[in-house]
Amino acid sequence: LIESRPFLSRVPDQSLLIGNPENGFDHAQATRGEGYPFIYIPAGRPVTIDVRKIATATIQSSWYDPRTGASRPGAVIEGKGIHEFVPPGTPGRGNDWVLVLDDRTRAR
After folding, report:
1. How far is CA 28 from CA 19, 94, 100, in A?
2. How far apart are CA 52 and CA 86, in angstroms?
3. N or C: which end of the chain has fewer CB within 10 A?
4. How confident is the prediction along the chain (108 residues), in pLDDT tens digits per residue?
């Protein structure tokens, strides 16, 4: 996953997250690079993202499972407003995911 997107432009950006707990096992971590952010969700709980900060008209979401290395497609959404994303599975320890939000105008 880390090598699948340009990494030299990737920086931490917690401002993408709305209402993220400050600490504890529910604390999500966000980074963004050119045309994408990665949001690590440690306990499978929903996250609310300000997608306006991605600066694109259309976003393709996907879920990366760090336990298996597999990805699954998510919804295509408009790059407007605030959206809640619900990871697959049951919330709790051991159900960690990486939410990937790709700018659909960029080729991958």
Report:
1. 10, 14, 13
2. 18
3. C
4. 989 998 888 999 999 999 877 677 788 999 999 999 999 999 999 999 999 998 899 999 999 999 999 999 999 999 999 999 999 999 998 899 999 999 988 755
